[in-house]
Write a structure and sequence with these properties.
Elements lengths: L23 H18 L8 H10 L14 H6 L6 H6 L12 H14 L5 H6 L2 H8 L4 H8 L3 H11 L15 H4 L19 E4 L3 H6 L1 H13 L3 E4 L8 H4 L4 H20 L3 E3 L3 H14 L4 H9 E2 L1 H10 L12 E6 L2 H4 L6 H6 L5 E6 L16 H18 L3 E4 L2 H8 L11 H9 L3
Parallel strand pairs: 1-2, 1-3, 3-4, 5-6, 5-7
């Protein structure tokens, strides 16, 4: 047997349409096999709460081994996994091509999918993971003000805790009736001919994402300004649904497929017209780069989109390598603490955000590679809020030691989670915003 981590990890497709995927007996056998390996290794104890939960169950069992843990308690381990994939990409020495072929995230996803199919996932989780519907309601004129006010009202928050299981202290994002899509009506792209620099085409279609459209439209506007300043024409997809990541995390794979059937044809039409796809939220990019290709390995359209969707700074780094990125910066930014989101790290693109921010004169970047503990619903639910805060404490402590002028993260939810524990000199927390400021763009 070869030692693990001697070869680059490979990922097997998710066999989610196979009836055996939903066989509980086979699931429990695989959980037992994988949990026993994890118990003997414990290398991932510093990641999410899933691993400490597992190890505590073993250490508190009568045998001090996995055989002393009741299978009914396996779900406690599953509930703590929020599919960040870091264990697979960065920690586990037993992933394929190792013969033990451990894929912890996909095993947790399988368990969640079985729970969902049996109707065991809570209604509140189904509601808050339906970001399309929530955003559609919460961005209506007049309603958005009511929602934002209610989210800051103690009485309303107690009701929200009782009905949707959202912790009273959790930071909830604001909703904007003037969404990014509304702001971009009548938007004119650059008139210049696109300059191709492989693998980029020099013109892009923006997948706005639920979050940038409804909660943080300023980030989308900053992306557009930066790209157009660099001669990259930007337009919006004519139609889109949620990327599917919130539903994936709940094991609702049929809804993920439903969203795919809308998004992929829209993206493919843009790609056929010579445009790349861009999105400002790492989780959304990851969904099309990794999760959907693994769910639909034989779908040529999905695989084609995978090759043409980019993280914004990854795209800019390709342009810089080709000598096409402008460096006419007007403003230095001092010290920046850059938090690397988990869903960006596992894209295996390297620190492209730092690569670009490093070009700004008199600007120092300190990298923080620790989980923020937010991950969407995990950071706001009453059952997991305190655990989320516990995970964030180490990251916040690291950020405090940096004493930076700015704290930024490519994931706006992670940025908020960390920023809430800091006394920041400046309110800007997204690297696209800082890049726009450095260029002197209004």
């Amino acid at each position: 047997m070869r030692e693990g981590s001697l070869q680059a990890p490979t990922r097997h497709p998710l066999d989610w349409t196979n009836p055996e995927f939903y066989d509980e007996d086979k699931l429990n056998k695989e959980l037992e096999r994988v949990f026993d390996v994890c118990h003997g290794c414990r290398r991932c104890v510093s990641l999410c709460e899933s691993f400490p939960t597992l190890f505590d169950l073993v250490d508190e069992s009568p045998t001090l081994e996995l055989d002393g843990v009741a299978k009914a308690d396996y779900s406690k381990v599953v509930d703590e996994c929020y599919l960040c994939d870091l264990c697979y990409q960065a920690k586990c020495p037993y992933v394929p091509p190792h013969e033990w072929a451990i894929d912890y995230p996909h095993l947790m996803l399988r368990a969640k999918a079985i729970e969902f199919k049996k109707g065991q996932r809570k209604l509140s989780l189904k509601i808050i993971s339906n970001t399309d519907a929530v955003s559609w309601v919460a961005t209506k004129p007049g309603i958005s003000q009511l929602v934002n006010t209610a989210n800051k009202n103690k009485t309303a928050r107690k009701l929200l805790k009782k009905t949707l299981g959202i912790h009273t202290d959790a930071h909830l994002p604001e909703y904007h009736s003037n969404t990014l899509r509304k702001r971009m009506r009548g938007h004119q792209s650059n008139e210049t001919l696109p300059q191709v620099a492989a693998p980029t085409q020099g013109q892009v279609s923006l997948f706005t994402t639920c979050y940038c459209n409804a909660n943080a439209p300023d980030i989308g506007e900053d992306l557009i300004k930066v790209f157009q300043h660099n001669g990259i024409a930007v337009q919006l997809l004519s139609k889109e649904r949620c990327c599917g990541m919130p539903k994936l995390e709940q094991g609702d794979l049929k809804t993920v497929d439903k969203y795919r059937r809308v998004n992929i044809p829209q993206m493919l039409a843009e790609i056929d017209a010579g445009r790349d796809i861009i999105a400002a939220i790492p989780s959304c990019v990851l969904m099309f780069k990794q999760e959907l290709p693994l769910m639909f390995p034989d779908d040529k359209d999905v695989q084609r989109v995978k090759q043409h969707i980019f993280d914004p700074f990854e795209y800019l780094a390709h342009r810089h390598k080709a000598g096409l990125l402008k460096t006419d910066f007007k403003q230095s930014l001092g010290k920046i603490a850059w938090h690397v989101p988990c869903h960006q790290r596992v894209q295996n693109i390297g620190p492209k955000t730092k690569t670009i921010l490093d070009l700004i004169p008199d600007t120092e970047i300190t990298v923080i590679e620790r989980c923020s503990g937010h991950d969407g619903s995990y950071g706001v639910r009453k059952q997991t809020y305190k655990k989320s805060q516990k995970i964030a404490r180490g990251t916040i402590s690291r950020a405090k030691r940096v004493a930076a002028d700015y704290l930024v993260s490519d994931c706006p939810m992670a940025a908020t989670q960390i920023a809430d524990g800091l006394e920041l000199k400046n309110p800007q927390t997204n690297p696209l915003t800082l890049l726009r400021m450095a260029y002197g763009l209004k």
